[in-house]
TrEMBL record:
GO molecular-function terms, A-Z: D-serine ammonia-lyase activity
InterPro entries linked: Ala_racemase_N, D-amino_acid_metab_enzyme, D-ser_dehydrat-like_dom, D-ser_dehydrat-like_sf, PLP-binding_barrel
Family from the record: Belongs to the DSD1 family.
Matching SUPFAM superfamilies: PLP-binding barrel
Keywords of the record: Lyase
Annotated GO biological process: D-serine catabolic process
Lineage: Bacteria, Bacillati, Bacillota, Bacilli, Bacillales
Domain D-serine dehydratase-like as annotated: residue spans: 254-350
Kinase found in the keyword field: no
Native organism: Paenactinomyces guangxiensis
Domain of life from the UniProt record: Bacteria
Pfam families from the UniProt entry: Ala_racemase_N (PF01168), D-ser_dehydrat (PF14031)
Protein name: Alanine racemase
């Protein structure tokens, strides 16, 4: 079957484009002699996670315990939960998960560490923890340098916790207005981790993993001396935000939405069958202003999706368009991660010919 014969809306994954994107990350990590631990919140799919590991990833990164549970049940054995955990319900789930995989957990406060330690007190279990450093996003994370060292010393006195890493996420790179600004953010990102790790090691606290990542910055931050790992997520697919930032080209975008024209008013608008339940309302995180509208309609620069209701994508027409009722188009989403989370499966194709259908096992896993 050709992809243009599919019902709409359908989520499409170009396997060749994805493979090329994965090769680019793997090659970078190999050239720098560092590890690669992709963030799977972008794809939430076991087949893709396994493919990343086949290409050399040392493990994966997840945002939530529920994602880790899905990945561990599917055979992924090395997982960083890059999210602070302190609620008793989640700590109980974490204890169970430790039996199935090598888990690493983010901490950015001594109270979190104490709660984790208390839950493991008297057990034979040792939990790896990684300190989250704030490198400018001003979300989670302790400040680099002395705050990292202080927390590291406190963790060192907790017998069931082992500090094995320091990491950060420069998500504010998504708001950058130029590649020069992205480079500056990336260098700050890498130095925040590397210098904090060096300070800890000077005090006798070894830090084997020094991890950075974000799709816009990983190729720069990953070259900072002392960094041992990168964690790009979106780079498996890319999307309209990455194109707007100058990080990727339209041709590299592997994830697209197949949509149909369901209504048209000549000279004014066309309506696609892809509303907020298919494209999401995301126009970019952390102040990004590079995207216009709600997705890039491939090969139709005259069309801009101006509004989304739940089931309708309302697009304006700049001049004339050849699009008519029942015509199908491909739309590159603004943010691939949020769109992937809206679908149960993705249609995999090669040069427009359907070759498989992959479940998105961790979609909706937000706890």
């Amino acid at each position: 079957m050709r992809i243009d014969q599919l019902d709409t809306p359908s989520l499409l994954l170009d396997k060749d484009k994805m493979e090329a994107n994965l090769n680019e990350i793997a090659d970078f990590a190999s050239e720098q002699r560092i590890n690669w631990r992709p963030h799977i919140k972008t794809h939430k799919c076991l087949k893709i996670a396994r493919r990343q590991i086949e290409k050399g990833a040392v493990g994966i990164t997840v945002a939530k315990i529920s994602e880790a549970e899905v990945m561990a049940s599917g055979g992924v054995k090395d997982i960083l939960i890059a999210y602070p955990i302190s609620a008793p319900e989640k700590i109980n789930r974490l204890s169970a998960l430790m039996k199935d995989a090598q888990i690493k957990v983010a901490v950015d406060h001594v109270k979190q560490a104490k709660l984790l330690q208390d839950s493991l007190q008297g057990t034979p279990w040792e939990l790896e923890v990684w300190i989250k450093v704030n490198s400018g996003l001003n979300r989670c994370g302790v400040e680099p340098g002395r705050e990292v060292l202080q927390l590291a010393k406190q963790i060192a006195n907790m017998p069931n916790l082992t500090l094995t890493g320091i990491f950060t996420h420069a998500g504010h790179s998504y708001a950058a207005s130029s590649m020069a600004e992205i480079e500056s953010i990336a260098l700050t990102e890498g130095r925040a981790v590397a210098e904090s790790a060096a300070l800890c090691e000077k005090e006798g606290i070894p830090i084997p993993a020094r991890s950075v990542g974000s799709t816009p910055t990983y190729k720069i931050a990953g070259k900072v001396s002392g960094i041992t790992e990168v964690r790009p997520g979106n780079a498996v697919f890319f999307d309209a935000i990455q194109v707007g930032l100058g990080v990727a080209s339209i041709d590299q975008c592997a994830l697209r939405l197949l949509a149909s024209v369901v209504s048209k008013r000549s000279g004014e608008r066309v309506i696609f069958d892809t509303g907020s339940k298919a494209l999401s309302l995301d126009q970019g995180a952390h102040g990004n202003a590079t995207v216009k509208g709600f997705g890039h309609v491939v090969d139709h620069p005259e069309i801009r999706i101006e509004r989304l209701s739940e089931e309708h994508g309302i697009a304006s027409i700049d001049g004339e368009t050849t699009l008519d009722l029942t015509d199908k188009v491909q739309i590159i989403p603004n943010h691939a991660c949020t769109v992937m989370n809206l679908f149960d499966h993705v249609i995999v194709h090669r040069q427009g010919i359907v070759i498989d259908q992959w479940r998105i096992e961790a979609r909706g896993k937000v706890q």
